[in-house]
Amino acid sequence: MTTLTKAPEDALPPEGRRSWLKEHSELGLCALLAVLGILVLTDALTMDDHFAQRGPVGPQAVPTVVGIALLLVAALLTADVLRGGKGEAETGEDVDLDTPAEWRTVLMLAGVFLGNAVLIGIVGFPISGALLFWGAAYVLGSRNLTRDPLIAAALSLATYVVFNNLLGVPLPGGPLMGVL
Amino acid sequence: MDSLTSLMDGFGTALTPINILWAAVGVLLGTAIGVLPGIGPAMAVALLLPVTYGLDPTAAFIMFAGIYYGGMFGGSTTSILLNTPGESAAVVAAMEGNPMAKSGRGSQALAAAAVGHFIGGIIGTCLLVALAPVVADLAVDIGAPDYFAIMVLAFIAVTSVLGKSRIRGFASLLIGLTLGLVGMDQMTGQQRLTFGSLHLSDGIDVIIVAVGLFAIGEALWVAAHLKSGGDGAIPVGRPWLDKKDLKRTWKPWLRGPVIGFPFGAIPAGGAEIPTFLSYVTEKRLSKHKDEWGKGAIEGVAGPESTASASAAGTLVSMLTLGLPTTAVAAVMLAAFQQYGIQPGPLLFEREPDLVWGLIASLFVGMVLLLVLNLPLAPVWAKLLRIPRPYLYAGIMFFAAVGAYAVSGEALDLFILLIIGLIGLAMRRYGLPVLPAVIGVILGPAAENQMRRALQISDGSLTGLVNSPFAVTVYAIVALILAWPWVRKLLPARRTEERAEERV
């Protein structure tokens, strides 16, 4: 794979190499696409074809095409990046691309979301949802220790009642709703 | 005239008090969510989808129609008052709308946008009423090879027409197709990419993909680059237009649908191209050329009417062919599937109440939009000042609610986060999100049509090109693919001039 040949500047000192990699971090995306392609291809090729196949085209055909296309795109994208092509980062109303990215915030935000996914089955939506909102707001820089949790609790409880009781979309109440 | 009677029946459905209520709730919610900075119509629709889960299909889609138009209108309010549009169709509205707001004519800009939306929407929906049954009739006869060809066209168009880099568009499309492969093969029952997980064998719900890519991906991406402070929104009063403004806006309003509707119906990415064309047209025809760039009201009126009409055009291909041409339509198609309804030529025969109720409620929704939103504009403007931590925490919160509501399983939340991280990477490296969503939703359908076509031809690949229709579509596909080279051969013309104006 062309993806692996990303060190034409082996001779550079370590810092230079690191900044080269940082500059070309898009190669990571190419690698990811290649890995995805291999995954899809492996899955397609290891399918057992005992299944009663209807028609001349089996379930392997499309995954095989998609897998090969993924490898192809990974290669072409690698070539594009090495020739100096760059994906333009998306802009938006609240996006400031002039400052360096704060990946720590992203990680913490993902962590908070993960926490909600784990907790929702244990403590129910009203509590896990409130923690999700408060946690996310905290991570994003809101530090009002009375207003934030109050808004979180009110929002979560109101959402629960509206969805569960008014709109007929069930959400887990958890032990808290058992008590109330 | 048949469609007129059906439409009257549709109004019978849409005008019951309870359905008017749902339409009003939809318009208000759609505008409120769409006006929030960072939330485009597609995200608004995806986030609000769970609200409709408990309703019967007709009520749900009537509410949905309100959300759709409300979300679009909300988006243009944001770009006029805040200038940095988060969504492509609203880019043009900001070019003249924001200078107007800055020079104290924000109320007029909003009014021009609102009435433009109304007129564009009404004309567009009338065209929809006239055309959709005709297209559906024609489409009944087209077979599997033709469908497959149209879907290939959609894939190629969505990756090649929009965006700056084709290769990145294709990467995004392939990510979507891969996600669409997960689950049990519909024809043989073979498990694909499920890794033995029972939950995955049902496939990944399109709603989870849409919410993950649009909502979680966006929230995480903004978290990495959150702007501190910001420009702040411009406060406005009640929107109004005086005689002088009306004289300048009525023609752009009426010209908008002519440009917008046809572009909406073809898979060329929805409102981005037609709104821009409308902007250029109005600029050329304007008698006030000196005002352009400083706040010419025609530059708001024309593109907004165009955007609204293109949304109606989008519905033609979505309802009659099951072909989504924009992100919002893709989410809407997913909503249909949620109810076990498959849009396509037979939809008008099988579910006449629902379709005509939906179309009638588009009219109702637009009237409500005008009646509610003009007086409420100052309130919507206040929403723009919501503290950003609350806004993005709220997006995460409602994304979690929406994903969980799909099937009531916490596992979906993990999948949502993974797809959100993919969405983050796509934003970082400039992969457009729309091809991925189209890939997820059309991929499985395209595979089915292809296999059906090959089944009929007994495996011979000629079975894919055995109708004049399919051959024509593939010729268009070839032309789109070859366009960059073809263009080089043509003498350099306006295209570059346009590209420059864009910046």
Automatic annotation (TrEMBL), chain A:
Which Pfam family would be a valid example here? TctB
Read off the InterPro entries from this record: DUF1468 (IPR009936)
Any coiled-coil regions, as ranges: none
> Which key words are in the record?
Membrane, Transmembrane, Transmembrane helix
**What residue stretches are annotated with the DUF1468 domain?**
30-172
- Highest rank taxon of the organism: Bacteria
The portions of this protein that span the membrane are 27-45, 65-85, 106-137, 149-167
- Official protein name in the record: Tripartite tricarboxylate transporter TctB family protein
The organism named in the record is Streptomyces coryli
From TrEMBL, chain B:
| DUF112 domain sequence ranges | 20-437
Q: Where is the chain membrane-spanning?
A: 20-49, 109-135, 147-163, 170-187, 207-224, 315-336, 356-377, 389-407, 413-442, 463-486
Q: Name one Pfam family in it.
A: TctA
Cite the InterPro entries for this sequence. DUF112_TM
| PANTHER family given in the database record | TRICARBOXYLIC TRANSPORT PROTEIN
Looking at the keywords, is Membrane present? Answer: yes
Keywords of the record, alphabetical order, are: Membrane, Transmembrane, Transmembrane helix
Instruction: Report the protein name in the record.
Output: Tripartite tricarboxylate transporter permease
